[in-house]
Amino acid sequence: MRNLITWCATLVFTVALFAQGFDAGTEVKNASSLRTYFDEKAPSAKVLPRSILLTFVAAEDRDFFVRHSLRSPITTYLARMLLGQNYDKMKAPALSLIISTELTKDEILSLYAMEVHIGSGCFGIEDVSRAYFAKTPQELTLSESAYLASAIKKPTWCHPLRNSDRALKRQNYVLSKMQNAGFANESAVNLAKSTALTVQDPLGGCEE
User: Fold this and answer.
1) Contacts with 202 (C-beta within 8 Å, 6 or more apart), sequence order
2) What pTM does this model have?
3) Residues facing residue 117 across a β-bridge
């Protein structure tokens, strides 16, 4: 049954690509190419700290682990990011279905972290952690991770440098959601909220 669903989604996705004018730059064209694309990212994705991934869940979809992946905003956003300039309303649901049937939840979340846009032309947690904190993702504190995750929905409105007050408020909101979801304990959250952050100019690591 799973194979049939994946096949149907791939068929719809392929038809949509050709209907809109196929772009050879689209790396993910079917279930097989999605798996290949993930495997290329896997060495980096597999070493991402769990705490970082959970800040994304708290910020974007608290119910990610209990709802069907297809219904998750995280899956929808990942499909949009993978499509890039090929995005349209017909392709996105088909690719979301391929993602939800081909990848596990942990794989979806890891790939999301590697692709997510967090403002200032930064794509993926590796680039953004270097740009804003001059650190690898493994070196980020809970406070820093939540600070970055806070900017996902509105990168400009919550820009860590241009709108630092808004970003801090959103950061505290994400941290509270982490505590409520059981992703972090009260002491860790209180420490993260009280920790002063030093954010550097992201233009050194990402192009605007």
Assistant:
1) 119, 120, 122, 128, 131, 132, 160, 161
2) 0.82
3) 123
